[in-house]
Amino acid sequence: MYNTKDDDDKLKKISLPVWKKLFKVIMRNKFNLIIMIICAVSLALLDTLQMVLSQYAIDELVTKNNFTYYGWYIGANIGMAVAFGLTVYGFIYQGGIIEANVSYDLRKEAFKTLQKLPFSYYDVTPQGWIMARMTSDARRLSQVISWGLIDFVWSILLMIATLIMLYFYNIILALIVTCSLPLMFLVTIFFRKRVLLRHREARHYNSELTAKFSESFNGAKTTKSLVIEDRSLMEFDETANRMYRSSVKANSLSSLYSSILLTVCYFIVAIIMYSGSYYASEGLILVGTLYLFIRATVNFFDPVVTLTNFISQLQQAQASAERVLDLIQTNPEIKDTEEVIQKYGDWFDQRRENWEEIQGEIEFKNVTFYYKPNEIILENFNLKINRGMSVALVGHTGSGKTTIVNLISRFYEPKEGQILIDGKDYKERSISWLHHHLGYVLQSPLLFSTTIMENIRYGRLSATDEEVIEASKAIGLHEIVMKFEKGYQTEVGEGGNLLSTGQKQLISFARAILANPKILILDEATSSIDSEAERLIQDATKKLLNNRTSFIVAHRLSTIVDCDLIIMLEMGKIIEMGNHETLLKQRGRYFELYKTQFLQEQELAYQSEMNAL
Fold this sequence. Notes:
This protein has 613 residues and is of the alpha/beta class. It folds into three domains: 4-28 and 96-328, ABC transporter type 1, transmembrane domain (ABC transporter transmembrane region fold); 334-437 and 517-613, P-loop containing nucleotide triphosphate hydrolases (Rossmann fold, 3-Layer(aba) Sandwich); 448-516, P-loop containing nucleotide triphosphate hydrolases (Rossmann fold). Helix content is 66%, strand content 10%. α18 (531-544) links the parallel β7 and β8. The radius of gyration is 35 Å and the shape is elongated.
């Protein structure tokens, strides 16, 4: 169950920094903001002047039948009509620009933060949560900031101008209006926290619903293959109902708030009408002045209602603001020190002139690592790999193979101990420096929704078409690509779903070849592809591993027999280490595992031959 009390406590702690940060974002649009404020000031003055003109028309033109300044009166109304049109156009145009700019700035900063966050952030943060912040929360926030700001400025200025005008005509009636303000604020204070908490709850369930959408899209094939459409629909319906109920409660409370506020407003209007009628009957004020007070009173409370509605919208925006800025201000667990950034630059300002060439020697010194404190993966782990060695990591699931390569890649960092590259702690150089010299081929390759050419080029963005094709030829991908009607300009679809798994993996290998990394990591890269694609990759891998430090996380031992060093892991510890022949001679755990796999492969081959017959 969503705990609104916890969120309310959080609100009290971060409310000031949230709006301070947002104010900085808004102030990036100073010119547009100034023009919008000028338009709002003009509109407030025009609204006030229109009431004065109406009072003049009743007292002079109707009551006294005085048409001396009738021409000026007509001209003033025409001028006001033109001024209203220009003013409304001005603040709507500037408000639209501010909305677009604020939305752009928030999403850009959020996306920039996402590029710097490590794997650990994505391990614990749902994709739907991130998507909701980048889309609906950012959009809601930009709308409230832009149009709500217009309403706020216009309301405040119109209230001030109207009050000044009322005191000019009759102090007693103006005091009645002024004395109603504390009552308005009491109503606002009473509803403020309640409305906010309801909307925060609705936004929470909206994030859950977005996550359900995302999960449904990504798992569509699995859902259909398991025939669990009814279960998925039931879970989605439960979440949607929770959001529906929360939204109805939030809107009901907002409606009650507005209704009570309007009742108070028009109760004061009734008092003004009663008192003003008495003054008019006694001849203390003219009929036009009475009309002025009635209309001015209504017009005075109109901006009050708008202002309190803005407060309600601002309360809703507070929830969105917390979520968006929580994402923007997320501090990466893995980051470079200020000294490293000054020398090597950061992700977006790389000082490559200071980058040293990497040789590829890697050493683990007393490394301890865990994802959870009570589940240690590596403890006091030591390993040294000379430059240019090909190293295979072997072991059952959970033995620490992927953890080791993730630590080498600095996707995670040791909790204790050091990892040295070329004899120097890799924290003393930038993350971007390391990743520039690193090639990583995943078990499940991800392709971007573009052409084959561009997907390969992601290995090195400055590569020419000819270099991309050469990388493709090096692993035998070129012949496959040329069978497509559009060749290298073939669109791969979302996530590469228009290609086979083997074709996607070959493209990821072509990327690695194009990048020409000093350190290469293959994380079970051949475990999910067909034998033909595996043969092509194995041939290319032999070329790729030459004079390059490489780590291969292997599922099939037949793919690593040529490695310089094979490390057998169990529960984060090295139990055997050596080349293929040495480990077979030891007749230990590696020998047993290799023998088991060899017999299984022979049996599968025999069954295939029998089926062919």
